[in-house]
Amino acid sequence: MGLEAGGHVTPIDHGYIYTKGAVATPPQQTAVFAPLAGNISTVTRTVRLNGQNHAATYDDDAVTIEATCTFRVRFSNLVRFAGGLADAIGEVPANETKNPNYAVKAGELIGYTGLPTAYGIDVWVEDDDLTLTGFINPAQYTAAEVWKTHMADLFDHTQEPLRSQLLALNERDAAPRWGKIGYDIDGRLVGNWFRVGTGGYRGLNPMQEGYWDGHLAVVPDGNDPGQIDISIGNYQGTARQFAVIGNSPDPSTVAESTGVVRYELGYVETYSAVTGQRWDGKAYAPHIRTRAAPGVIGTVLMQMTATRSLKMEIFPGKSASQVAGFDSNAVMFER
Predict the structure, then answer these.
(1) Comparing C-alpha atoms, which of 168, 65, 52 is closest to residue 123?
(2) Mean of pLDDT over the chain
(3) How far is CA 232 from CA 35, 87, 188, in A?
(4) Does the pLDDT of residue 206 top 90, yes or no?
(5) For the chain, what is the radius of gyration of the CA atoms?
(6) For residue 156, which phi and psi values (nearest 5 degrees)?
(7) Closest among 45, 57, 42, 36 to 101, alpha carbons compared
(8) pLDDT at res. 55
């Protein structure tokens, strides 16, 4: 939880559990079991385009398990449903949802994950009795995704010995080990911003393809919070993530009084702190860290013009020394 990737411009509100089968030769699907007893309230089948392994289309199945009225676990990136759940729901039409109210037992087979859908499952742990801090305007998030400020730490709800087994394979060493998504500090640069006129978090076409176009995040890296990342919803027409070269200034210290700051951007390079070798994001590697890869991709200028107002301009292909200052292409962001 807490990574940024592609259209996930702001820190991601769910975690990922990758499977060995997805990177095996040939790839193998992996069984998915219910992590707790409860009621499966919702199943969804989404047909997507351009899957892993060059699949033209693929199924992305999702399931919601309600443990109580306020606590639930959701999985997505299943390739198919299985077991008693599959028998109960029958065939789910493409891009539709069913509400089976299926009583599931802990450890019961509910489906399979693997290619071409993904390298594993997406996992949400939601606790309505928990409210996260770190969002200056939380209502704009929950208006789009009601669960956004109620994400719980998977490891806080996992029993031993499984908890220790999962932690031993977790990419992130820093606490909280499951990750963090709320970084906003009022009057400081750090956290999430939204380009003025683009509809805030939900976008102008709420939660549809491209809703992230106006998003901006200046945050610690999700795997390695010692590295500053800048995640931009529209960098030359596409969502992109970058590591700050030189890792300074710390955005949590940048205020209106700071004036203009310059960040040189590099590609995010992920590597093992043990071996120093780059990590491909698929097979397990210990103690993941991130850094800016060699080479300046571009420079951004940022200036807080008020407590919740930010001026920004992107200069692709230019180093900081090649940028004199803002010009007519600067845009404004808000919270």
Answers:
(1) 65
(2) 96
(3) 35, 44, 18
(4) no
(5) 21
(6) -70, -15
(7) 42
(8) 74
